[in-house]
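Deviations from the work plan: none for this task. Representative record:
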Amino acid sequence: MPDVQSAAIIVTEGLTKRVTSPEGELTLLADIDLSIFPGESVAVVGASGAGKSTLLGLLAGMDTPTSGRVFLDGVDISALDEDGRARLRAARVGFVFQAFHLLPNLTALENVMLPLELAGRKDARGAAGEVLERVGLARRVRHYPKQLSGGEQQRVALARAFASQPKVLFADEPTGNLDSATGRKIIELLFAMNRERAATLVMVTHDETLAQRCNRRLELEAGRLKGTL
Amino acid sequence: MKRLALALRLLGRDWRSGEIRVLALAVVIAVASVSSVGFFIDRIQQLLVRQASVLMGADLAVTADHPLPDHLQRAAQQRGLRTAETVSFLSMVQSGGRNLLTEVKAVSEGYPLRGELRIAPQRLALDHPVKNIPAPGTVWADERLLGEMALQVGDRAAVGDATFTVSAVISHEPDRGGSLFSIAPRLLMNRDDLAATGLIQPGSRVQYRLLAAGDTKALNTFRADTEAKLGRGERLETVEDARPEMRTALERARQFLGLASMVSVLLAGVAMAMATRRFVIRHLDNVAILRALGATQSAIATLYGWQVLLLGVAASTVGCAIGYAAQALLGDVLGSLAAAELPAPSWFPAAEGMLVGLATLACFTVPSLLHLRKVPTLRVLRRDLGALPAPSMAAYLLGVMALASITLWQAGSLRLGAMVLGGSAATVAVLALAAVAVLAVLGRLRQHAGGVWRFGMANLMRRSRGSVIQVVAFGVGILALLLLGVVRVDLLADWQASLPPEAPNRFIINIQPEQVKPLAAFFKDNGFDGAALFPMVRGRLTAINGQPVLSARYPDERARRLVEREFNLSWARDMQADNSIVAGHWWTAADTGQRVLSLEEGIAKTLGIALGDTLTYQIGGEIFSARVVSLRKVAWDSFHVNFFVISPPGALDTFAASYITSFYLPAGKEALLSRLVRQFPNATIIDVAAIMAQVRQVIERVTLALEYVFGFTVMAGLMVLYAAIQASLDERLLEAAVLRTLGAGRRQLVVGMVVEFAGIGLIAGVIAASGAAAAGYMLAEHLFHFSYHIDIGLWWWGGMGGAAAIALAGMWGTRFVIHRPPWETLREL
């Protein structure tokens, strides 16, 4: 393993994703080499269809590359099966989505408890309650997602993402479904919690001001990285 | 028109994307089930009529005590009906110095119009069917006549003034009906020879019959015309007057089939309701986009209205075609049931199937589709807007009402329909309540469960509303399957047991009191134990409560005939096993010699006799009065000797009685009969083996046909399961994707889902088993009148079968959920 991998928390080597479409083979990502270091906050930017979300899915091990490798916290996730990747995610990764993706039939508390329960944590309820308090929803733990506003839903999602104390937090357009004022609050919270927990943040965004708040930006163009590491 | 075209295009797109396949499939199965059962019942009914026709030798008969006017026969022929005439009377037949009172039947060319005549060339020779009637100058005699008069084929016998050559032994005539126990030996002769006998004189007791057969329409018009013009002593007989034991068997067959088809409809309705909901949920976004593109509410309503109509018509047509094909295959099964060619089914069941398909679809989809009209345009921006409200009873009220009406209609009987509906409603309520209760208990237990169990139970709990709905849906499905599988087998077994293979097939009548002991000894010596002999006294009912009985006072044809003929009265100390008291009480030892009676409930109803009434009989010139103290239900199809009127011992002893018995004669033991006749020459043996074989054949064929129809019910049950899984598929996909993202392993997902599905299956199965046992008991006790034995295995099959089946089906139905990469799902939803 090269030296950089021992220091970096995420490393990719020749990461490529191709899909077959009716028009023939389509290259979504081509030959991506990058490294992300612990505690860094990285914005992935680019035009629609540039491959931002595809890259995020591959980095998080939610999708498999056509070729190339991804190392997450020193583990070659391209060599793991789906279950192996799931275990890795449970232990080290948190997620925030544009569409929140809370389970509609679970209360706010139960949604936050889920990753803890999956990891077999006995104190799931207590731990989930604490994180919800941190995001300012202590009084809404028993509410179902549809009883919450968009901003509140995203705060539950943040709580869920941070509940398992991940080393890396992936965020896919976290403010995309929110109005700008609510979006700003969510971003403040996200950065604050990220700092508190010393997590690494990888965020896909369209929002240039948001991108600027990150330590670094990776710009994608037609499936290729623009600029430098 | 533009909208119709657009609707058609949208429907095509939905079909290609698989959106409406479940809905279409549910309609297809419902319609196929209803129409195949409809086609089948239609044919069975036609068969029923044909079977009955065979027993009558015609489709219709006009009977009179005087020669029938010629215009009647001409009228029948003008309508294209085939006709034949018979003239029956009792007369002495003489030969070689012996005389025997014989029932002579003179028949015209063409007789019988239905069924077949069978003759044998010699006594005890093999018989064969014939198309002709005795040639002029010849007669055909039955075995009894030849035996008792020591005649052989070729001998001559005198009837009145004419002498005939016996040219064959008659072994079977289809219309040898009437009372089985009052027929004398038979002689069949040509109608043209009748005048030569000189027996037909004014005042002779003669029965004239005009037989008619042909197509139903002609028969109906002839019947209507004739009925209005019937003169005194003239009577119209139709197939409804056919043998009661056959009718009982076929009536039961129809009830079984009706039940099977109803359950298919109910299940298909549930599947449709579930599929529609999914269809609507998946179309919320489309509608929002259409609205954003400028479609008005009415445009959307019209568009989806057309879609439902097109889908309904297309799916119903396919369903009808499948139903028709299915019953065509059934034709092979049924072909052997009918003696002649099988009647083609009418087109009514197809119309019935279309109607059921469209009505059910409309009633279940319209309430949900109306919601589509109201989807706010803003949903294109905010997906949480305009979500479909949770299913409420009100939304499905229309569908439930449609199903209820169809069920009542299909049942053909308010009572049967109400029982099935009431049972279904109660089952749904009990299933729902029990599901809520069990889930509440699980909720508490969940705290103590560990690992994946906890997660699976959590799934059940977290989806509690959905879990209750699924328990109810699967429960109804499992209940129907248990009812049709296990309970049906039990019911059929009980039914067949009511006509065991060794049911009596021979009756002996005319046994004299002094022959009772020797006959019992004869039976014992020949290895026939326990053939009970019953005394029989013939008497005419003359008064009820002192009021003279006049046949003209009864509007009912059957009642008039009953009071005109003599009753067979009997006495017995104990009630027979196939009888049961429905009112009053059976006598005790203290009632011996008392003038009390027990009446069969059917005859009591027909003649308007109530408990406590006093009946007066004229028995051989003497008067006998007695009070009715009990009413009995009699299982006539048991083929045991039974009586309408019974008194306790000692009451009728003073009157001249003869005895009657019935017994089972195994095939190949016929030699016993000739020994019996030699020893007891006056005793008359009546063979009912042929008619019993017919009844048993009907039971067996119908059972076979039922298994066939049952196939559709199983498919409808699986459809509910499939629809239920489909309905929760999107939710499960999203949930699985989120869980995987959060780090759940495949095993965790699988075990969690297995626990959830098996839990639902187990709860549904156990509750359904209880429901099936209750329904089976109700059906057996109140409808089919068997004693039904509840089987503990029901709960085992219900619970374990339910858990295993739902878990397997659930895992199969959700296999994409497990195997799909989470990123794919999350980006789609």
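The first strand of chain A starts at residue 10 and ends at 21.
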